[in-house]
Amino acid sequence: MNKETLTRELFNEVMVPNYAPGSIIPVRGEGSRIWDQEGREFIDLQGGIAVTCLGHTHPGLIGALEEQAGKLWHLSNVMTNEPALRLAKTLCDHTFAERVFFANSGAEANEAALKLARRYAWEHHGEEKNEIIAFKSSFHGRTLFTVSVGGQPKYREGFEPAPGGVAHADFNDLESVKKLISKDKTCAVIVEPIQGEGGVIPADPEFLKGLRELCDENDALLIFDEVQTGVGRTGHLFAYQMYDVVPDILSSAKSLGGGFPIAAMLTTAKVAASLGVGTHGSTYGGNALACAVGQKVIDTVIQPDILKGVVARSDRLRKGMMAIGERYGVFSEVRGAGMLLGCVLTDEWKGRAKDFLNAGLDEGVMVLVAGTNVVRLAPSLIIPEADIDEALERFETAVKKLTAA
């Protein structure tokens, strides 16, 4: 098939209609720039939804992939491989974790975390201690278990009966958790340090510290879903380090592979022991290709100048978007941390986040939404400052046209 036959219309003919992609089809990327089939250029502030943390076609990632591709692609979990061992050791060295389980997606990492929490409670406290507390507006994946735990009913609609034993408290409201948690029943509390899909809402530091204390008091495990906030996104390797609250289990994906599918569940040796031989698995999880790329991502992101650069770039982008918001009356605040920012629409523009995404595309800048009231930004951690400035100029042009219409 040639380019002429690979059109957006073909999507409707051959793909399951669970997505509604835009009309452009990107074909090439370099750094924080993308080009479509017609050669039109865009500045990418989407980052593949917080995935392409080192931009597109990063030479180091290409080199790691090519080198491993010439050695070994896949074995099975009947035996281990060097890249998986190396990456697991690196993750343990730079986090609270003592054990790592590899998977392919954030949903799989969360599925493993939730299964582990129940299994741990079953082994240590009995089968009645199986309830999970999550939060309203949270998002933890699209498997049947993770949509049940996620706090957005729209993702469960039509798929019931969903797995039970899940209660939802109010995010940033410790009292609502106290009403639900119990020593006899609760096995885990799962929380996003910054709710991503729910609107880029950061957790209050005292809220997370309170969750840690409640979990300790009730013999429950604390799970941090860092699928979106992890791997340098906040200016720390993981967001728990920013909050100085250590979970028992942490899930990571998205940026971990810089665009290559890989996920990880991190935990302590004591908790990990509950997933004995045969209790859980993943055919592709921990394959050599993915782990080789993930290793290069981590080795790059943990450099102090990279993490400091995230903070500086975040400040530049945040101030620029807030200035646009003030000039045109479209944003009431810009919240989040590092390279995960949410521009909250004013009352006048509520419900129209998608209009800003489309207006941006018309001017050659790619942004995201988080619900209908928030414009979300999740660009490369190393996006050049010149690209940030040009993206802001393009986006202001888009906002100017949108507000004048």
Dominant shape: globular
Low-pLDDT stretches are none
Oligomer: single chain
Compute the average pLDDT. 96
The description of the largest β-sheet is:
7 strands, mixed
CATH level-3 fold name of the largest domain:
Aspartate Aminotransferase, domain 2
Individual helix count: 14
Number of strands: 17
User: Per DSSP, what share of the residues sits in E-state strands of 2 or more residues?
Assistant: 15-25%
The gyration radius over C-alpha positions equals 21 Å
Structure commentary:
It catalyses: N(2)-acetyl-L-ornithine + 2-oxoglutarate = N-acetyl-L-glutamate 5-semialdehyde + L-glutamate. Homodimer. Belongs to the class-III pyridoxal-phosphate-dependent aminotransferase family. ArgD subfamily. The chain is α/β, with parallel strands linked by helices and 405 residues long. The chain folds into two domains: 3-57 and 304-404, Aspartate Aminotransferase, domain 1 (Alpha-Beta Complex), CATH 3.90.1150; 72-301, Aspartate Aminotransferase, domain 2. The chain is 38% helix and 18% strand. The chain has helices at 8-14, 47-50, 59-69, 82-93, 106-124, 144-149, 174-178, 205-217, 239-243, 269-272, 288-301, 304-328, 353-362, 385-404, and strands at 26-30, 33-36, 41-44, 99-103, 131-135, 166-169, 186-191, 194-195, 201-202, 221-225, 249-252, 263-267, 331-337, 340-345, 365-366, 368-369, 374-377. The strands form four sheets. Strands 4-12-11-10-7-5-6 form a seven-stranded mixed beta sheet, sandwiched between helices. α12 (304-328) packs parallel to α14. The protein is globular and about 60 Å long. It starts with 7 loop residues before the first helix and ends with a helix. 47% of the residues are buried.
